Structures are given as C-alpha cells and as structure tokens.
Amino acid sequence: MAPSFDHLRDEDLDEDDFDVDEVDISDIREKYEVQLEQGYDAFVVVDGLPEVNEEQKPKLVKFLLKKLNTVGKTREDLIFMPMGEDGKSLRFAFVEYSSPAEAAAACRQLDLVPLDKKHTLRVNKLTDVDRYGREGRIDDEYTPPKIEEFQEKEHLRSFMADPSGRGRDQFVMFRGESVGVFWNNEKDTPENVVDRQHWTETFVQWSPLGTYLTSVHAQGVQLWGGPSWTRQRRFAHPFVNLVAFSPNEKYLVTWSNRPISIPEEGHPALSVEDDGKNYVIWDIETSKPLRSFAQLDTPAAAEGEAPKKAPKFPWPAFKWSADDKYVARLNPGQSISVYELPRMNLLDKTAIKIEGVVDFDWAPATVQRDGVKSYEQLFCFWTPEIGSNPARVGLMSIPSKQVVRSLNLFSVSDAKLHWQSEGAYLCVKVDRHSKSKKSQATTLEIFRVKEKGVPVEVVDTIKDTVINFAWEPKGDRFVIITTTEPVGATAVPPKTSVAFFCPEKAKGNAVGNFKHLRTLEKKNSNAIYWSPKGRFVVVATVANTQSSDLDFYDLDFEGEKPESDKDLTANLQLMNTADHYGVTDVEWDPSGRFVATWASAWKHSMENGYHLYDFKGEQLREEAIEKFKQFQWRPRPATLLSKEEQKAIRRNLREYSRIFEQEDAERISSADVAVVEARRRLLEEWFAWREAIRQEVAEEREIYGLPADPVADLIKAKTPELATDQEEQVIEEIMEEVLEETEEIVQ
C-alpha cells in the first residue's frame, strides 16, 4: 500500500519550501491522495491445508490458487502461508481478494469444499476471526463443553398416524385473527387439533410434504410442527411477502418487495452482503442463508421504441429441480441461471444463454427416458419469433446442458408449458394468430418425453382459444376449457366449452394417439381440478359473480360404454352437480376422497365460509364463517409401499372394503347410540325435576291447608250427584242388520 500524505515523516517536510497558508492545494490533495485500506473485509483465512515444508510450499500455493480463483481474483503474492519454527507450515493461510464481495463469495462457496481426498477447506473472514477471537472472548484454559442430556424430539410426521385409525386428513383454516388445524370428520364437526390467535400476520402455508406449517410475520418466517405445534425453524427476512419451498423440503426461498436493509448493529442471520437484496435462499435444516439476490430490473426500451409494459410479477422466481439439487432463475430475454445446491454456485460458472427466452419449467420428476442410461434433470423453455427466426420450444438436460429435443413454431402469439405430474408428457399450449392477426386459435404440441427420440404429437382440431389446460395426475388424459370470444376482462364472462381428451387403446403398455372424447357446450366453467389420484375431476366456475357451478366427472365410469368410445381409454360420466355461491377456491384432499370449496374474505365479503363434498359430489358439510380467509389441506408425503405392494392391495381391495364398511357402520351406530343415550338422560332428568316440583307443591298445599287435588274437589262441588255411590246399570240395545236381500219376479 502506498503511504498517504499524513504518513510522511516530519523531517521530510521543509517548511521553507512553501507556505501552506498562501497556497490552497485541497482540491489537488482530494483528487490524487492515495487512501489506505482501513478494513480487512477483503481478507479470508483458509484452514485445513496439508502440512508442507519450504520446498513444497510453492506447489501447494499454486494448487490452492486454482480453487481460490473460482470465486474471485487473487494472486500468489496475496497468499500468506505462515511457517513454524520447525520449517513446516501451520496448515492455514491468509488470502486477500480484490473486493469484500469476492471474499464473502469464497466463504460461502469454498467452505467445506474438499481440497483432496484427505483435506477439506474451512474458509472464514478475517474480520470474523477478530470478532469472535478477540481478547476476553476465549479462555486461556481449556474447559470441556457441557454435554446436555439427550431429549427426544417430537416426530414431525406424527400426523400420518390418525389416532382414530380412520386415515383422516388434516386441514388448516384461517378465519378472523385465528388459525386452527383440524381433523376432517366428514359430516360431523371437524375435530380441533390446535387453535391460536394471531398465529400469522398475512397467510399460512403448508410445506410440500406437510411437515411444517408456515406463518408469515414482519420479522420473517416461522415453521411449526410436531404434536405440540412448537416452532421448529425461524428465518429472519424482514417484511417478507412470499415464501416457496423446494419439492423435498430441503430449501426455502423468501421474497420481500422491500430491499433488505442491514442496521449498523448487524442482523442475527443476514450479513452486509445481503443489503439491498430482495430474495434469500435458506437451508431449512440449519436455518442459515445460502445466498441472496436482488430484484431483476425490467429491460429498458431501445431508443425510439415505446416504453415496455411492466411484466407480470413472476412467482416463484426461483424454480427447483425434482431432486432439490438445482435451482434456476430466468433472466427474461437473455438466459437461464442454474445454481448447484447447497453451495449455490453457478453451474459451470456461467448462465445458459438463450436469446429471447420467455419462460421455463423443470420436469416435476426425474424422467427415465428410453435409450438413456444416466437420468438427468430436465427443463423446458420457449422463445418467441425474433426477426426471421421462428419461435422455439426446447428440452434441456442438466447438468450436461444438452438440448435433447427442440421444436420450431410459427405465427405464435403466446405459449404455456404444462408438465404431466410424472414428467412423462409435456404439453405446450400454443396460441397462434392468423396472417392478419385478427383471429386466434390454439394447438397443443405434446412431447412424449419417455419415448425414444422424444416424438411430438400435435392436436390441431381445436378451433377456439384454450383458456385452461390440466393433465390427469399420474395419468395420460387431459381436460381443456375453450372460448370463442377474445380473452380479457369483460363485464359478462364469455360462454365456454369443456373438452375431454384421452389416448386410443394400443397393444401392450404403449400409449396411443390422443383423441377427442367429448365436448360440453355453453358452460360458464373456467377452472379444472383433478383428483390427486386421477380418474375424477371437478370442472368449476370460480370468482364469478353470476355463476358458481361445480361439475363432478368420472372418466372411468363402470357403466355401459358408448359405441363411439369403444377404442378410447376413458368412459365419461357426470356424477353430480353442485352450487357454491361466491366460491373463490377449490382443493382436493391428498387422498382424493374429499373436495373443499370456499369463499375467501380476501376476494369478497359475501357468504364467506366453506363447503365439503365427497368425490361423487355429495355435499357433506356447509359452514358459514365470518371473515373466513383461507382453507388448505395438509399434504402427505409419498407412500412407502412398493409398486408390487400397492398392486396386492388393489387385488384384495374387496376384503379391505368389508373391514372399512364394518368399521364405518360401527362408528355410525355408536354415534346413534350416543345420541339416544343423551336424549334418554335428558328425559330422565326432566322427569326427576318434575317429580321434585310436584312434591314441593304438595308440601306447600298441606302447610297452607289447601286440598291436595283442587281440581277433583271443584268437580265434586259442582256435581254432588256424582259424589254418591250409584248402582251399576246394564243397558241392552237391539240392532237389526240385513245380511242379504234378493228380488224375485212373480208372474
């Protein structure tokens, strides 16, 4: 470091050479004075190095330099490795980076990284060493740590063992200022598990596998769970607005529209590097932040162009691979950044450049593709038409970054990506415009991802615009909703049509081509909700002030199949219809047995509450609740049974059904007996009260000299002749009855 003006020795200054009072050089000094580096934020301490001598030291420094330069810039002369009196290194080194941000990145990405098979790096900031190791904070004498007694933790999956033995599901309700978790009792009142006031400030949310219940506060996010509903984790992200989990509950991303501001006294979880950021990705197990990100700025319009309309806020902004090993973020129109977990380093140190990219989505499962030995994670993306280049849809494999399939499209207005739950199919809903751009239609480009070469099937028989699409979970059928009128905000929602599609029958395990099954015209429906187990689907009209229809369909109806559907893999039947005025949300329970619909006070204040239906559409329960805000079923983790065990259960389902039906009958009869006993008890209590009052009245009459039965005495007084004994009289009455009558004509 070059010395500053203040560090020159007094003898180096000759006062006779110039008069400071006469010459003002403050502007020159301010411009050219070299400032000393006051802090050590750019320094890190690298521990865990192998022990080397002076001859081996240069080789180790060069080898270490390669690792250090993966996250920033440093040089050999900026690495200081202390040596001991015996001529061997002390197994640590001081490293100076070009900026504090690079030093922070080194601590985050290089800590616990293997240097070789025997040595693992430990990287810390030099300022942290000073902060935690200064005088007075560390005792000179070793004191063995106090080992606390083992305390058994609560089982976070205890909700899977229903105490009633009926396999019930739980749900959470947010109404007023109260949040409660309940067991579903079908027609009966839900059984309360826990109910707390002011449990959250904005909303509640289950984790994907149902382990945690999330509450959101101005100070951050808290996770609750276990039988006693204690706080399990806490993530201090101030003024957090939204939360998203990774599929396997390993990581959490939080977002706030306010950039993070770190106070001078510091923050309990975040650091100075997180200042000004909006997103934070956390490790749920340790509750520590892995990395933070700022909000992306909207690209500015080119000179001479009209200002670009602000895009719709993307959520989730970070999307996770099915195995939780990667998380990716879209840089609109430019690239996709894929980060490896848990280190959160950019895959191959560079973003995947895709010119014009609009959207992308990960496959929801690890797809086992035909002809591929190693199964990687897949994501799909699409780009619009740019100049003379067509629009494009692509499938990319990660981490190899290989494009396994791409498809060019023309006359594209918009596209939406829809994965099937097992990643077997990808449907790209393509809205196409005519040459005049006055009319619009939709085609479905279906990628058969598991088949060799990923063939693409086109469904181009749709003449109208598709406004909703939904795959059958774990199946190969889908439902669409179409309209002939332009999509947009209108005073009266347009009439819609609901169309069902399924594959043709094919030999063996092959899946045939997708064919149209049925179309229902002149509907008001705008939403599709499949059962998580497939087969059953609810087509609903939500957030509509004029209609609130709920149609329950079965696609594997066991009745007679129409002749036109003989070659198709579905038999459609409308099971029931229902109406829930003002319905805003619909959700199936994890078992696929029940459907909840509710009207949320967040969207309107009319008839708030919820309805509960079985899968056939029969209403089980209706409850109106003032200021009802939220209803959410508790998810369940995937079954632990193998496919063979599941098949065995299906084969013996009738035997299990008899047991369950008997248990249901006993439960209903026991409930009836309880009702009868309660009524009998009330009746006996009433008879006892009546007898006590009668005796009390009789005693009072005797005290006051009143007759015991005043009514009888009054009758005797008015009819004295009845008071005397009368002889019994027998009265006989003769009645004549004609048994038969005939007429004869006498000549």
From TrEMBL:
Self-association and partners: Component of the eukaryotic translation initiation factor 3 (eIF-3) complex.
Keywords for this protein: Cytoplasm, Initiation factor, Protein biosynthesis, Repeat, RNA-binding, WD repeat
Protein's recorded name: Eukaryotic translation initiation factor 3 subunit B
Subcellular location(s) per record: Cytoplasm
Annotated GO biological process: formation of cytoplasmic translation initiation complex
Function as written in the Swiss-Prot or TrEMBL entry: Component of the eukaryotic translation initiation factor 3 (eIF-3) complex, which is involved in protein synthesis and, together with other initiation factors, stimulates binding of mRNA and methionyl-tRNAi to the 40S ribosome.
Recorded superkingdom: Eukaryota
Pfam family, one: eIF2A
The family this protein is said to belong to: Belongs to the eIF-3 subunit B family.
Gene Ontology CC terms: eukaryotic 43S preinitiation complex; eukaryotic 48S preinitiation complex; eukaryotic translation initiation factor 3 complex
PANTHER family registered for this protein in UniProt: EUKARYOTIC TRANSLATION INITIATION FACTOR 3 EIF3 -RELATED (PTHR14068), EUKARYOTIC TRANSLATION INITIATION FACTOR 3 SUBUNIT B (PTHR14068:SF0)
InterPro entries: EIF3B, eIF3B_RRM, Nucleotide-bd_a/b_plait_sf, RBD_domain_sf, RRM_dom, TIF_beta_prop-like, WD40/YVTN_repeat-like_dom_sf
A GO molecular function held by the record: translation initiation factor binding
